Amino acid sequence: MNSIQLKEIVGKDKLIILDENKELANTYWVTLQTDSGAVEGKIYVPLKNIGKLVLFEPGFPGGGSTQFEEQWLKKLLQNDYTVFLARHNGTLINEKYSSSYLNCKERQELGKKLGQEIIGVKPKNSINDWLDEPLVALEKLTPHFSQVTLCGHSFGPLALIHSLIRYVEKEPEMSKKINRIVSLSGSLGMYRTDDHPFLKIWYDHLNTEWARERVQIGDAKANTDIFYEAHLDIHKNASKIPNHIEFIAVVPWGDTQISTDEIVHPIESLDFVSSLGRGYLILDKKEWGDKENGRMAHDMEALTSDDLLNFVSKDWLPKSQISIIKQ
Fold this sequence. Notes:
By secondary structure, the chain is an alpha/beta fold. The chain is 35% helix and 20% strand.
């Protein structure tokens, strides 16, 4: 895939050529749009493009894509992966934290020129729109690659699986190209009661000024309800995920309080392994949090690019169904 081909796929008015990683890839900001919705983000096409694609969906409120660019991207490009890093609909374009979350001055300049406050094609968005972001990317990009790997963090794996189930129903032949799901600190638990404590955690997370300074996503209660229904959906329909698609969940589960995920309980990944009937669980004991400086084990900042390369590589699997990453 080159710039001419990409323009044909996404439309020339929905693509910005970026001056990044030129020694390894051609880089673009793109708006992908199908009947299922729209999603914006960066796509990195390695100079040696051999048809391998990684789709990454970040968590809430979306800083994981920038973290991916800073920590893990180079290793994947060196190994000839095309990488699409989504930005959430509703992300603020020119506010206090926009430069960090978008990490794209060209998109911010375009937003100023067009008078846009948020990214996306709709004036208002909700978690429903976020759940469909991977579906849009799959519909737009899968036909042009021979191998597709799904990777996400926190909320991201929920959206990936929710979208994958729908994509498999719509495009059973194309879905044969998808080889695995990599869940990093994934919010995938089975909520057994309406007042499940983790729902309160997410409501509190959504209903903060901290979040509103980064994204416009609507009412916290309405989004929590959508969030709850999405969890029910992925467990109810997990059997629709074809057997050829591997599932690997990596969770911060250390031996101390500060080395265990503060937001998503590690048992949530085990819940989904149970519903799926297969999968691998990797316990990451290297992560750690520090409340004073804002670091969280949940963000998985200690995960190395070599580890992530293994997780997305078709020919790599853990040696056992439950394994450990340690110092």
